[in-house]
Amino acid sequence: MKTLLELITIDMREAFAKAGYDEELAKVTLSNRPDLCEYQCNGAMAGAKKYKKAPFVIAEDVAENLKDSVYFESVDVVKPGFINLKLAPESVSSYLNEMAGEEKLGVEEEKDPRTVMIDYGGPNVAKPLHVGHLRSAIIGESVKRIIRFKGNRVIGDIHLGDWGYQMGLIITELKKRRPDLPYFDENFKGEYPEEAPFTISELEEIYPTASAYAKENEEYREEALHATYLLQNGCRGYRAIWNHIMNVSVADLKKNYERLNVEFDLWKGEADAQQYIPDMVQMLKDKGFARYDEGALVVDVQEETDNKEVPPCMILKSDGAALYDTTDLATLVEREKDYQPDEVIYVVDKRQELHFTQVFRCAKKTGIVRPETELKFLGFGTMNGKDGKPFKTREGGVMRLENLIREIDEEMYKKIMDNRTVEEEEARQTAQTVGLAAIKYGDLSNQASKDYIFDVDRFTSFEGNTGPYILYTIVRIKSILNKYQQNGGSTEGLEIRPAENAYEKALMLQVLKFNDVFDAVYAETAPHKLCAYIYDLANEFNKFYHETKILSEEDEQKRTGYIALLVLAKRVLESCIDLLGFEAPERM
RNA sequence: GCGUCUGUAGCUCAGUGGAUAGAGCAAUGCCCUCCGGAGGCAUGUGCGACGGUUCGACUCCGUUCAGACGCUCCA
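YS: structure for the whole thing
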């Protein structure tokens, strides 16, 4: 169904046209003076110059032609030339009833669904997940759900960092520790063991150890580089180790991401793109896109309109090895072959922007992707501690994701036990649900592109603009509805009635905005606007709740009308948090 | 050095070229204590600075100050 803004705009355009003015002026927006009106149109002022008339006169002409519109209770023309609109309660309630009958609450699906891929700029295997991986997972998951909700086909690819020097380091360190393993025996012709020669904890210790040692020891570094080379060029034993590393790591990653309620459709990685590199390089050479510069193969991506220097895209190092430009390009080759995406969104640290500018330009210029393919960089900022510096543990190290989540869960558990007498097991369960909401809402309520301060105390608070507060509101509605049902009431087939007081109307107007808000969120890929919306919605509900006796309302029509409104408000809230990637418990 | 991003209340953050720039936290004072008080109401302080465009600028464009980040063979 059309959003209310679209419906009003149709009438407004008609009114402008009838009065003899350009329809393009008929832009309706939400009011920024809620005390005066609910929606407004400022087109009269914009048109004053063109028609050489006082804006006030234009506005009055237009308002005259709005009289037939069914939507308004009042149309006021004010001072310079504002057209202030108030909705009729009847049209609000009937719109809401229509919304309640729609599975997607009035959001219209895309007429031509697109295929969108999301690249999470994935974690490196063999390294523990740390807080730096949190944002891409949380933001990416929400963006995926939002685009999918609009009816598109979305494919999320974690895009693991699973190829390169880090693997060489692990192999080298393993060889040093366990030279007796068959993987290091060149004459070994049998089957390698199925069991990995290390656990995930060992793996997580091996990598940093090796990495640190390589920085001090040149010989060791050379060996690791050579091991990388051997791995990439088909050494059977090393490939077997690589498989072990992948199996062990991926199992662990899946566990962690599951805990975050984050899912990937594809577990591809850099390694998967390797097979596409040789042909791609050949193509770049054959078609004359690539040139040699100081021994390295590069593609120029500088454009005339640039006011800065954009370095060329590096395809091969002077020693012939591939780089991350190469891998990202080859990945696009692979995606084009397998999925022909209409759009690829990279949810990665904003510091990588230059790199992706190079890759996007190169991919377009060389025809690796079609000209109409949208390549989008969705860069996010750093998660900082209270001191405004990148988030660290108390000891100053990198905070492991697992520990961060545990800390939040503990905090939530304490708060739940303080305020309620619940079974320990239920409290633990609830703490996890609410804790996840605290983390995700805390992240998503900020603009993705900005750095933000991760403040455990603030995010886990039940007051203010937080995840727990939103959940609390939902739980409160659930509680009322449950009580209503226990008393024999049914929530099926009820009609929302026209609002009779300001609180009721305010709540209705807020619910009403859902599809308009969603469309903006979708168009701008801006989950934080969804957060702002549900925070307002939760506030409007709480005000309404405070002013209105719901279950004890004696007039049955009114009572069932309230219930119908609560049912719809709850659905909207639940849909929104689902789009954000978390859910509400039954009690808390 | 060049470039990108950010700068809004004491703190954390919103703000689609429009009317009186908003929330939360913190502070102070009230209200309700009824379906879940994890509420409601009120009070105080602010668009880094200077210009320009515009009928109208936190928003667009310059200049400047401050901070973060990035600038070919790590990712």
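YS: worth flagging: Chain A has a mean pLDDT of 92.
IM: good catch. Also The two ends of chain A are 35 Å apart (CA to CA).
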